[in-house]
Amino acid sequence: MKFAMKHLILLCAALVGAATASAQKWEGLADTPPMGWNSWNKFGCNIDERMIREMADALVDSGLAEAGYVYINLDDCWHAPERDADGFPQCDTTRFPSGMKALADYVHAKGLKLGIYSDAGRTTCAGRFGSFGHEYQDALQYARWGIDYLKYDWCNTADINPKGAYTLMRDALRAAGRPILFSMCEWGTNKPWEWASEVGHMWRTTGDIGLSFSDPKAFTGDWKPRTVMQNLDDNARLRRYAGPGHWNDPDMLEVGNGMSVNQDRAHFTLWCMMAAPLILGNDIRTMSDQTAAILTDREVIAIDQDPLGVQGLRYATDNGIEIWFKPLADGEWAFCLFNRTLEERTYEIDWLLYCFTDTEVSQRSTAFDRIVYEGRDLWNGGKSFRTDRPRSVVIPAEDVVLYRLKPVAER
Ligand code: GLA
């Protein structure tokens, strides 16, 4: 009896130890917003292993991987028509003849990570099998395959409790023992920002992004995605809920998919100002040099990835020009002017008008009346200036200027 008790105690200690270890593995997976590529925006269901391998090659060859984009994420439609006889998920063997483990090995050998997609309901949005009732089996299979990231969707979930469903999958992933980043995709329907900071590493705050900067009429089908601007506006309101390990996700990038270069630059910059996950949605095998230059700009990416992890603030709007601030580590700030109008504008920056304290999140003050900052104009080769005098800038239509401000002197 004594012997059995001792073993029981040892077993309990081991289980607690394992649970703590997997919770620890879970932490630190998204200290800064996740970066990678996903198949959906450009390719929808049309994916296969050859293309995914080519995408992994291109991520490395283009310099994107070195710039921080490490995840290669399969979205919907990797699935076989049915689970296997024991209920485990299996992939479509026509499209993925070498299997998921081989794909993960390929991606890992390039120093990258592999993401997969599932859904909390019985079927996914594109009608493939979902994880409902198979959560632990699915997590186990993902771990065996070597998956590093799970996007978990919310189609076909009538009568399912959202917090319960996402927590169940989180626990299943933890129990499977492999660190797997958990990306919640329930479109903001149940306000995940209010309850999910301990559940997922990121959560969608909006419906699906589409390929239009600001014109909802561009979408003509029955089902309508949203413009980049609609997602910006919804996500901008939620800054107090984002932080290291739990990010607001205004959806994947449309950069390089057909908008103007000004719109692409604005979209990318504003996602960085909002500390959004940077998940590319274009064909990186064939992207233009202009697209690559936007997506690999280290100094702009550093605004998104800043270790302080505070989502930027839309401080004011002045005659169609939005004024954004993002507190950065070491007393620095990112400052962005976004010309939302359809005309080029000249704008006079009077720094003294922007003395404020970010009482909502960081408690940090800009104090332009007391502190002089040295600015770097990030989209203009880092040209420098100081904030002890006003500054005049020209901003093209639907474009941005982005500065990094570093405190250098008392005023
Ligand atoms: C939903 C998601 C999209 C994508 C599709 C796949 O619409 O929000 O991001 O994953 O499903 O079917």
Structure explained in plain terms:
- The longest helix has 25 residues, at 2-26.
- The mean pLDDT is 95.
- The protein folds into two domains: 28-304, Aldolase class I (TIM Barrel), CATH 3.20.20.70; 313-410, Immunoglobulin-like (Sandwich), CATH 2.60.40.1180.
- Helix 6 (135-145) crosses helix 7 (162-176), helix 9 runs parallel beside helix 10 (289-295) and helix 9 (261-273) packs across helix 11.
- The strands form three sheets. The protein has an eight-stranded parallel beta sheet with strand order 7-6-5-4-3-2-1-8. Strands 9-10-11-16-13-14 form a six-stranded antiparallel beta sheet, covered by helices on one side.
- Helix 6 (135-145) links the parallel strand 3 and strand 4 (149-153).
- It is of the alpha/beta class and 411 residues long.
- It contains eleven helices and 16 strands.
- The radius of gyration is 23 Å and the shape is globular.
- Residues 40, 75-76, 124-126, 153, 185, 208 line the site of alpha-D-galactopyranose (GLA).
Instruction: Give the structural class.
Output: alpha/beta
Question: How much beta, percentage-wise?
Answer: 15-25%
Count every helix, treating DSSP H or I runs of 4 or more residues as helices.
11
Tell me the CATH architecture of the largest domain: Alpha-Beta Barrel
What is this structure, in a nutshell?
The chain has helices spanning 2-26, 40-43, 49-61, 64-67, 100-109, 135-145, 162-176, 228-236, 261-273, 289-295, 298-304, and strands at residues 35-38, 71-73, 113-119, 149-153, 181-185, 202-204, 247-249, 278-280, 313-318, 321-327, 333-339, 345-349, 371-377, 383-386, 391-395, 399-410. With 411 residues, the chain is of the alpha/beta class.
